[in-house]
Amino acid sequence: MTDFEFVVGLIYLLSASLFVVGLHMMRAPATARNGNRISAVGMIIAVAATVALSLVTSGGEWIAWAVLAVGVLLGGIFGVYRARTVKMTDVPQLVSVFNAVGGSAAAAIAFAAFILATSSNPLDLTVSIPIVLDVLIGSITFSGSLIAAGKLQGVIPGNPVTFPGSRALNAVVALIALGASVAAIILPENTLLLVVVLVTALILGVLMVLAIGGADAPVVVSLLNALTGLAVAMAGFAIDNQALIIAGALVGAAGTILTLQMAKAMNRSVLSIILGGFGTGEIAASAGPADEELANVRSLTTDDVAIQLAYAQHVLIVPGYGLAAAQAQHEVAELASLLIAHHVDVKYAIHPVAGRMPGHMNVLLAEANVPYEQMLQLDEANTAFDNCDVALVIGANDVCNPNARTPGNAVSGMPILNADHAKSVVVIKRSMRPGYAGIPNPLFTDPKTGMLFADAKEALNDITVGVKEYVSA
Length: 473
Prior knowledge:
It contains 16 helices and 6 strands. By secondary structure, the protein is of the alpha/beta class.
């Protein structure tokens, strides 16, 4: 090892330390932004060190470096533009696309390492195993993430896409992929075997995610993120890069823990999700309920809701995907601030799988500068519902469905927000249509529940105007 390589190793150690510190800070909403910045600095340092090391050891292949520089420049410009212009409701799709890019990049690194290694010497197991695993996992992540992004975007149906014998086909493809992987490890000089691993893994990723229902979308996003990290770690082993190994291992471990927590929040095992999800995709909602649905529903006006909120002491807001879809985070924050200014205790009840990906609601509310201390997680929120005067449910459905307490349905056993424990419930929703699980919500027909059928953004604006009138009277 040269002195320069020793220095690069120390820089990698510094980067790894920044990754760990940043990841630790991401555990809490109040420090998550700074944690993200610290991790980004660590990655910039690691990339810079890798580029410098390659320049010193590559022998001056300037044409290749010029092509790489152009690619980095174009990719960086597009990435910054897309990240800054993406709608908050489209962030899950963007995350899935990023997962796909990460998986494909890791698989490409493995193929490049395979070609370079086999051109000179036969591969030993310490190289062939990570290369094959990288191609396998990276390819599954690439195709699976693209399908997940398509489901979240609505280009592909959100409901489970299955057909007679689909699970048997999945099993056959998985066995072929695993068999080819073992053969490629044993016979590492055979390029055709690695191509078989690549193709079958791509097919497996498509089939696996197609069979997963929209209700499992948050878990799928987290699972694919964990697989991306694992693929990156394998790429690090394939090219002997410590920064890739550490970064990939951290992402893989964190993603795995988050996946398990999300699955627990839905009372479903990760295996059952992979074998085939449940529920439907997002059903296009009409502007109001059908006539037959109104029979057992108590409809409210914005003035009715404004009166309840203006004279309440404790209010819990339950945000759901409908809030995100309406881009109403600023409106709900304004309403909450108005109520707090007139001595109403207002908190937000956040379910772990509310929205379309883990942490979606926290990010959405943080964008509207909602104080972190006002965001209550599941257990803390459920304790607060027992003393809540008004539970204001905005575009949420499955996460507060009391059917979870009874067996025999799609959400049975799923931990929910106990919005029905509040003294009064107000639900802002465009229609009575079910959520991703595809089943009715008895909360909407509860005698103490009032339904306000409207777009969340417009309704919250009107409610805010009404509250101002009542508190100033």
